[in-house]
TrEMBL record:
Protein name: Purine nucleosidase/pyrimidine-specific ribonucleoside hydrolase
Keyword Ligase appears in the UniProt entry: no
Gene Ontology MF: a single term: purine nucleosidase activity
One Pfam family this sequence matches: IU_nuc_hydro
Domain of life, source organism: Bacteria
UniProt domain Inosine/uridine-preferring nucleoside hydrolase: residue ranges: 4-289
Cellular component aspect of the GO annotation: cytosol
GO process annotations (BP): purine nucleoside catabolic process
Keywords from the named record: Glycosidase, Hydrolase
Length: 299
């Protein structure tokens, strides 16, 4: 199994990604760090802790990280993820977050194993990773692959005309991460909007015997609650572990990118720019195969 760290702001689709990582034998989860994003830090930490408890993984270290973006004010996403960030789905009492800074935990964990062996899955704004780069650049260089859900290249944005939530929430952090020279794969809306759960997905998950799969079914169901007329919902964050498992399902190109750090609707937009920093960018996805792998992974 591939040792991984998960940085997250659960969040319905974050929760689905975490359940996938917990369920799939291809991942060895070394720790979870949380941050404010979809909802405040206390909720995202409690939600991540509850998912670990559901899986009986009280051994996995959980650390609360950034409570706000690096410099800006946050964006409220409660309309999508519900007042508790998980659409009211019932979960067990959470594994408590440990004390000590998330960036320090990431640095210490990265130093315990050979450089390049631990991959980092970023499912929210990039604030915690930017802080790690600033506080412990030597440890950050030990990360294997960074796979981050964020941004859009050609698809319309979800918070601005061409801006996506995770990057728009903290453009300064996204800029620092892009320019850090990491082995970075971005999974933008161009890919994640092609991997969609339907009501059949809910039925398939609820029919499985694994408690993690059934909880995933309830979470996908909750994701439809405020979008009752939609036929399907995008599985943004699960695309991150899916990309690590099967990069061939996410055709990618190296693009040189710059993050828009203006104020207003363009904040966080990715500009393709020859003077920008290179990243491997998933520009699409085999949606059907990725969805099948998602369900299969939770089995
Ligand atoms: C991203 O923003 C959040 O709402 C989701 O959890 C995902 O990480 C999609 O733009
Ligand atoms: Ca997220």
């Amino acid at each position: 199994p591939r040792p991984v760290l998960v940085d997250t702001d659960p969040g319905l689709d974050d929760a689905l990604a975490i359940l996938l990582v917990l369920a799939h034998p291809g991942f060895a989860l070394r720790g979870v760090t949380t941050l404010a994003g979809n909802i405040g830090l206390e909720r995202t930490s409690a939600n991540a802790g509850a998912l670990l408890a559901l899986a009986g993984r009280h051994d996995v270290p959980l650390h609360a990280g950034a409570a706000a973006p690096s410099v800006r004010a946050g964006i409220d996403e409660a309309a999508i993820h519900g007042a508790d960030g998980l659409g009211g789905v019932a979960l067990p009492a959470p594994v408590p977050a440990r004390t000590g800074s998330a960036a320090r935990f990431l640095a210490e964990t990265l130093r315990t194993e050979a450089a390049g062996t631990i991959d980092l899955l970023c499912l929210g704004p990039l604030t915690n990773l930017a802080r790690l780069l600033e506080e412990a650049p030597d440890a950050a260089r030990r990360i294997g692959r960074v796979v981050a859900m964020g941004g859009t290249i050609r698809e319309p944005g979800n918070v601005g005309p061409m801006s996506e939530f995770n990057l728009a929430y903290d453009p300064e952090a996204a800029d620092a991460v892009l320019r850090a020279g990491l082995d970075l794969t971005l999974v933008p809306l161009d890919a994640t909007r092609r991997v969609r759960a339907s009501r059949d997905t809910v039925r398939d998950l609820l029919a499985l015997s694994s408690p993690l799969a059934r909880k995933a079914g309830e979470i996908v169901e909750a994701y439809f609650r405020d979008a009752a007329t939609r036929e399907s919902r995008p599985l943004h964050d699960p695309c991150v572990p899916l990309q690590l498992l099967r990069p061939d399902l996410f055709p990618a190109e190296t693009l040189h990118l710059r993050v828009d750090r203006s104020d207003g609707p363009e904040a966080g937009r990715l500009h393709v720019d020859p003077t920008g920093a290179p990243a491997n960018v998933a520009l699409g996805a085999d949606g059907e195969a990725a969805l099948a792998l998602f369900v299969q992974s939770l089995r």
